[in-house]
Structures are given as structure tokens and as C-alpha cells.
Amino acid sequence: MSAVRLPVQFNPIRYAEQRRLITGEMPLRGMSRLAELLLDSSESVRVTLQCDIDSDGYRIVSGELATTLQLSCQRCLEPVRLPLQLTIALAAVMDERAAEQLPSHYEPLLLSADGSCFLRDLIEDELLLALPVIARHPEGACPVKVVPPVVASEAVSAAHPFAALAALKKN
């Protein structure tokens, strides 16, 4: 059985009119902005997107993205695996004015002048938006014991900046 090839570039308006399904796997290694943040970009993202026309006439792209990203825990600096299962609900628009008119349950998918977009960019944008601000293991789950920073003694005078070193030398 041959692998399904995902389109590089597609026209969401035309795909919606044809009610096309986009399904397959896309490697993360080609997503340069995302790859900068990953410890390992050898994984892929499972893509299932349905292009359709909703009851109000909007050309929509909806579906799911699923992957597991390996990031660096900002608490212990060890690898942390982040499973992602994203639901996508986009409406194709040609300009910002049209984007402002969308119902709140759709995010705008801004198309180029010819009505197309790059699938890899769309997927990469959605994955980047789903990343946590700070990647870390759950509380207490870091494999390396995190040592709290050393706090200088309150007895050390701020007027003598090297007094803390003298106190350490005595110990």
C-alpha cells in the first residue's frame, strides 16, 4: 500500500466546494520555526482535515492534528514529551476585513491573492499556537532533582559585596 501524499499547496475554497478530505502524515523536520524549539524533530503529525461549506456559506477547513513533541523542560532541562491533539476550525478569507466578519467559532485562514495556502505553514502555525508558554514536566515529575538557588545570608551586609564570599570560605 502506498503512502498518501499530502498537497504542498491547496486552494481551500476550491477544496471546500469539492468537499475534499486531506488526510495523511507530515514530518515535523520540514517545519523550521517549530524545529528550532524541539529536541527531536523526527516525529510526524497526523493530519485529518475536511474542507466543506457550512450552512452560512463559509468555506471551512476543520479537523484534527495529532502528534507528540519533544521539548526541553524549563525546570530540569531534561526532555519532556508533549502529546498534542488539536481541533481545527478555520474559515477561508481573502482579507482582514472578511476575517473580522467571521463567527467566533472560526479562526481566519488568510489566503494568498490566488486563493491558495501552504498546508505545511497552516499546520506549523497551529502547532506553534498550541505550545505551552513554558515547557515542563508535571509538578514533582522531573527526573532530575531540582536544587533551589543558594540564598545569601541576611547577616551579610550589602555594603560589603564580597562578604558573602568570605562567609562561604569560612564554611
Please describe what this structure looks like.
With 171 residues, the protein is of the alpha+beta class. It has one domain. It is 20% helix and 32% strand. The protein is built from five helices and seven strands, in the order βαβαβββαββαα. The chain has a five-stranded mixed β-sheet. The chain has a two-stranded antiparallel sheet with strand order 1-7. Strand 5, helix 3 and strand 6 form a beta-alpha-beta unit. The longest helix is centred in the last third of the chain and has 12 residues. The radius of gyration is 24 Å and the shape is elongated. The model has no long low-confidence stretch (mean pLDDT 86).
Give a quick precis of the structure.
This protein is of the alpha+beta class.
